[in-house]
Amino acid sequence: MIKISNMSKYYGDYPAVLDISFSIEKGETVGLLGPNGAGKSTTMKVMTGYTPPTNGKVSVGGYDIVDKSLEARRQIGYLPENVPLYLDMTVKEYLNFMASIRGMKKGISKRTDEVIGITGLETYRDVIIGKLSKGYRQRTGIAQSIIHKPKILIMDEPTIGIDPVQVVETRKLIQSLGGEHTLILSSHILPEVTTICKRVLVIHDGKIVADDTPNNLSKRLQSTQVCEVSIKEKDGVNFIKLLRNESYVVDVRSKFDNNSEYKSYIIETSSSDGVEESIAKLIVDNGIGLHKLNSLPLTLEEIFLQLTSE
Amino acid sequence: MINIYTIFKKELLGYIKSPMAYIVAASFFTVTGFFFIASVSDAFSEASIRGFLAGAVFFLIFLSPALTMRLIAEEQKLGTMELLMTSPLKEHEIVVGKFLASFSIVLFMLAGTLFYPIILFIFGVPDFGPIFTGYLGLVLYSCSTLSIGIFASSLSSNQLVSLVVGSGILTLLTFIDFVSERVPGILGTILNELQLGGSFSVFDTSSFGIAEKGHFADFARGIISVYDIVFYLSISIIFLLSTILILETRRWK
């Protein structure tokens, strides 16, 4: 459905995306994961025909995005990052307008009602968009992206800036859309991508650093585990000595803590199975006063550090 | 064609919903009404719409950009330009649709002023020719001023900047005969040809708002000059094409 080969995009002298290649098959749900400024939005802007690539070829639904731009754009439903809406239109007027400019000719008003139903906007059908809350504006944005039944759905950070309850609802909505469309969404939130997408492309500094299923990706990353242990302050020296003798320990850092009674340590380990158990055993066997022990999930920064240092 | 119509319809609805079109229309009726009354209320004044034409030509310099300033600047500001540019629309369809919407508002305003000639026909014996050519001239003249306004709107995402730039270009093209008179040779002639038709001597009865040697003068006198028609259409086309070009280049940035 989408084929990108050796694509680069420069803004002036600054390369936002550098020589990336990938292809997306029909029916795939793909997540573009990366920190802010990694090149996710730029990649999407090129795929949607908003801006042409500086170098390389991009084809969407078999049409080149530069040479056959109109045909390529016909295949796409796009939700830009800041959810652009005409604030003085009602939801219905907006969707009708978007359907017409996306090339729908017949059955627009029927399809608008259908999409309003899918996105749960029934109550707000005739409300001016300017008066809607952020979450409902987001839904209106999603509604316009699917109104013309596009083959390819591209969403740029669809859950950014809305409250947690609506994030969950929006994710469910997007998940349900994945079945009928080829779906590409970008995010800087790992769990979001892993719940919705069957394939993850990790972008960092304008390059693709990983292209895998969420499972494989987390397996690859879970080869190390980080634990946080909080113990009685007086046992600190002894504890570090004991840890040094354990084979699975890679690094121990003490964490700055205001609490004088307990001291916290961040322990990086090289294996993922049963690390907490081993540490707990070590503590109990040596009579150290344990306060707290928990394993820390990898943060996005750490994932990128791992992927980019490989 | 259908895309132009979709954009046109959207913008026309936008005008109906927003206060700007009403404000512009009200100002237009007020000032042209004043100039019309002023020109026909003397004891021996002639039954012509020349006063109205002068007021209209002069104030369209400011009212046209006020009407068009929103058209493209707002799309840039709201980010909705991204939606238009990723839809299967061509740039010229966007620009022409928007132009036609603003043009139809001006046509509506001009239609509202038709009661000036009606009054003349009731109370006097006006010459029909200059009235017809006057309106034809205004239609063509407003094409140019609106095109320049849309061009200004495409330059910025700030509507106020668009308004000032638009009025600025129109003022410059109105003011240019002051300069061209003082420039010798061929350059002076060329500059003089660019004169848009209005005149800043609004309160001087001899040339009353319409430049004597400008492109509007013949229309006010009742003469249809192909040369002037071509001039106004060319200005419109040049500025609309420039707007399309600006939208196209913005993609490549």
Give a structural overview:
The complex is a heterodimer of chains A (310) and B (253). Chain A is of the alpha/beta class and 310 residues long. Helices cover 35% and strands 29% of the residues of chain A. Chain A has a six-stranded mixed β-sheet with strand order 6-7-8-3-9-10, with helices on both faces. Chain A has a four-stranded antiparallel β-sheet with strand order 2-1-4-5. Chain A starts with a strand and ends with a helix. The mean pLDDT of chain A is 85. Chain B has 253 residues and is mainly alpha-helical. Chain B has one domain (2-251). The longest helix of chain B has 29 residues, at 50-78. The mean pLDDT of chain B is 90.
Unreliable stretches of chain A (pLDDT < 50, length at least 5) are none
**CATH A-level architecture of the largest domain in chain A:** 3-Layer(aba) Sandwich
Span of the ends, CA to CA of chain A: 30 Å
Q: Can you write the helix and strand succession of chain B as a string?
A: HHHHHHHHHHH
Biggest β-sheet: strands ordered side by side in the sheet of chain A:
6-7-8-3-9-10
Q: Spell out the CATH superfamily of the largest domain in chain A.
A: P-loop containing nucleotide triphosphate hydrolases
Oligomer class: heterodimer
- Summarize the biggest pleated sheet of chain B: none
The radius of gyration of chain A is: 24 Å
* Coarse morphology of chain B: globular
| Strand content range of chain B | under 5%
Keywords:
heterodimer; A: 310 residues; alpha/beta; Rossmann fold; Alpha-Beta Plaits; six-stranded mixed beta sheet; 11 helices; 29% strand; B: 253 residues; mainly alpha; 76% helix
